[in-house]
Amino acid sequence: MGLAKRIIPCLDVENGRVVKGVNFVDIRDAGDPVEIAIRYNEQGADEITFLDITASHEGRDTTVHTVEKIAEEVFIPLTVGGGIRTVQDIRTMLNAGADKVSINTAAIHNPELVRESAERFGSQCIVVAIDAKRVDDVEGRPRWEIFTHGGRRPTGLDAVAWAVRMAELGAGEILLTSMDRDGTKNGFDLGVTRAITEAIEIPVIASGGVGNLDHLVDGILLGGADAVLAASIFHFGEYTVPEAKAYMAARGIEVRL
Amino acid sequence: MSGVVAVIDYGMGNLHSVASALAHAGADKVVVTHDARQIRAADRVVFPGVGAIRDCMAEIRRLECDQLLADALVGQHKPVLAICVGMQALMTHSEENGGVPCLNVIPGEVRYFGNPLVGADGQRLKVPHMGWNEVRQTRDHPLWQGIADGTRFYFVHSYYVDAVQRELVAGSVDYGVCADAALARDNLFAVQFHPEKSHTAGLQLLRNFLEWNGKC
User: What is the ipTM of this complex?
Assistant: First the structure.
């Protein structure tokens, strides 16, 4: 027996409400983030990830307030991401009660932010989020590129090489989302998950595409992920966290029951 | 009655979660402070820590938290709970940041997990050790009350404690090596994991701390 694989429900939050779109459109309202976080805490989720997709400044104040309320009620690790651009943004979220902060686009524009924040706050609280899309090379060999702006803008960066660089700069964890799969319920992109978990020493959270419990199992056993993240299967009551854990345990995966 | 719990704040990160978990566990009053008077007046002391050890030690010494801790432990004999880097700071020396002398309250080393780190069955283990792992209770202690042996707690660390006096080890965790997860001596209990992030088991440990008379 050893370290358990983690199950992480994800709250995509816009203007103080949990939403979840399919391929970043078709947003459905899933409810109040504080209530939902408390429910997952009670169900035995191993962590909670809170991704702020609000664009406006006013909305971001709401986010800080929501994070504070969740941190008062939920005694499992909380990761907050979305719109984190500066060391001050990271400090604001840590002070609001986040245990880890996820950096995405800002790391691409300024990789030194990862080094600086890891040195200042410790690697344990710096998560780098990678949004990858499959773009095979001319000979058809699999390759994954990082995209920004909800998967619309290519960066030219190779996702695996980027993960290695982020780990070297001091990231404590990688949150890997397949932009091809996100919201589709067709399962993780296991190719990129496996490629990145094999390339780096820090933990990897697989994200994007979970539609059933076999997908969670595959992310761990085939993708080699240390944790699996899912949103809609939990939000809309298709499965509970205990059901997911029991299913994974029955397939030989070590989980916290 | 828990009385007043002082969480020693030496400026290294957010201590709200520790404070709110203590309040949730039933603390009468929690103060987050490095004010000597408030810490001396408290009934119990929590010594937390996050971040890199060199910066932590520098701030602990600059704010004279080392002296406040010594007063609580030896002078006033109050129950003290050290958490994560707070536990590591109690040891003699840490390998982190190229080697940093620590408080030497408990003789021992803080060592790097090693890279690559390999598990018992040959699989590669990631560093940091991040997530829920089983804590083996190596001896009875009032802070384990109501917590089953082998219960999982939340860990996040790249360096681990290796105490010289093995009889002080109250809990251990396997992660490539056998690391000290909890140390106990008189009125001091120190844990590598985060009780404030360990759900019901963590809250139970904090509840036990709030009821503890400092004897074991």
Answer: 0.91
